[in-house]
Structures are given as C-alpha cells and as structure tokens.
C-alpha cells in the first residue's frame, strides 16, 4: 500500500487488487448485494483505493481495515442511491418500495461504527486475527501461512477477540 501511496506503483496495485478483489466481493455479497452489483462495488472500491491512496495512513488503520471501510461506505452509498425515488416511482406512489429506508441505513451506519469502535478496543493481535478471518475472509490455515503463527494461537486469539466483541456489543443485541 505504501508503494501505491508514495510511488503510484502499478505492480503493487495489481498485487493488492489480486489479494482483495475476491475477498471484497464475498464481503459485499454476504452483506446482501447480488453478484453483478458486488462486482461493480469491488471495481469502484479498488478504483477509490488507487485514487485516494495518498490518504492512507498506516498509523491510523491497517490496509485491510481501510479498504473494507471504503467497501462498507460504497455499499451504503449504493443502498442509498437505490432507495431514492425515481420519477416513475413518484408517479406510481401505490407501488411498494422493498429497498431499505433511511432508518435502516442510519441503523446500519451506527452498528458499523459501534463495531469499529469495539474492534479498536481489542488487543492488536486479536483484532488482526479477527480482521483476517472475518473481514479478509481467510481460513485459519491461510492466516497461519500468512503469519507463521501456530494454528492454536490463531484460534485462541479469534475466540478471545470474539468473546470481547460480544461483551462490547451486548447492547446491540438487546436493541
């Protein structure tokens, strides 16, 4: 990411794209986007990563966190755009709107913000494992290969991190 940010390195961007594109597509599809829309969102996210690389600050976020936040924001933008009435829908007010309403979008944004805050409270080692497993969509074996850590350590960090997240987010479950 630093090579992309500092030198506009196209080869580094190609590697970054290859690493994240499929993972982002899965992430967006699990959040409810159809396949074609997920592919469009991934293309837009990666284009944003290239265009806004100068804004990346490794002191504030990991590369994966930064990219997944861009993806979440882009997906919310798409949901909002779909929820806007088009002139035909305005003429046919009796048609039902199956899209999310503004309240749903705001609630999603608030939940995302609470999750981000809860993730920031985790120990860095736990946060990294959870981000790799859930945001990065990596298997425990893939994490082991990427980090060199023993499988038991990876599983323990994920388990402990998830317990802490459950505790931090218990208010969300009650709402």
Automatic annotation (TrEMBL):
Domain RNA polymerase sigma factor 70 region 4 type stretches: 113-165
Query: SUPFAM superfamilies recorded for this chain?
Result: Sigma2 domain of RNA polymerase sigma factors (SSF88946), Sigma3 and sigma4 domains of RNA polymerase sigma factors (SSF88659)
Q: What InterPro entries does UniProt report for this protein, alphabetically?
A: RNA_pol_sigma-70-like, RNA_pol_sigma-70_dom, RNA_pol_sigma70_ECF_CS, RNA_pol_sigma70_r2, RNA_pol_sigma70_r4_t2, RNA_pol_sigma_r2, RNA_pol_sigma_r3/r4-like, WH-like_DNA-bd_sf
Every copy of the RNA polymerase sigma-70 region domain together lies at 16-84
Q: Does the keyword Transcription apply?
A: yes
Does the record carry Transcription regulation as a key word?
Answer: yes
Q: Which UniProt keywords apply?
A: DNA-binding, Sigma factor, Transcription, Transcription regulation
Q: What Pfam family does this protein match (any one)?
A: Sigma70_r4_2
Q: Superkingdom of the source?
A: Bacteria
Task: Note the NCBIfam families from the entry.
Answer: sigma70-ECF
Family recorded in the similarity comment: Belongs to the sigma-70 factor family. ECF subfamily.
Q: Which PANTHER family match?
A: RNA POLYMERASE ECF-TYPE SIGMA FACTO (PTHR43133), RNA POLYMERASE SIGMA FACTOR SIGZ (PTHR43133:SF62)
This protein is called RNA polymerase sigma factor
Organism, as annotated: Sinisalibacter lacisalsi
Encoding gene (name) = rpoE
């Amino acid at each position: 990411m630093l090579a992309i940010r500092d030198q506009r390195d196209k080869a580094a961007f190609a590697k970054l794209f290859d690493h994240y594109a499929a993972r982002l597509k899965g992430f967006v599809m699990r959040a409810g986007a159809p396949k074609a829309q997920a592919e469009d969102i991934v293309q837009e996210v990666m284009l944003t990563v290239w265009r806004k690389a100068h804004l990346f600050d490794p002191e504030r976020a990991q590369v994966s966190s930064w990219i997944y936040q861009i993806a979440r924001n882009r997906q919310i933008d798409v949901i909002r755009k779909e929820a806007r009435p088009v002139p035909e829908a305005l003429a046919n007010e009796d048609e039902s709107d199956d899209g999310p309403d503004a309240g749903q979008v705001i609630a999603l944004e608030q939940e995302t913000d609470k999750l981000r805050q809860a993730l920031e409270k985790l120990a860095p080692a736990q946060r990294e494992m959870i981000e790799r497993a859930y945001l990065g969509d990596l298997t425990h074996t893939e994490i082991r290969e990427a980090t060199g850590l023993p499988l038991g350590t990876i599983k323990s960090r994920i388990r402990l991190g998830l317990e802490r997240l459950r505790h931090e987010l218990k208010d969300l479950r009650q709402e």
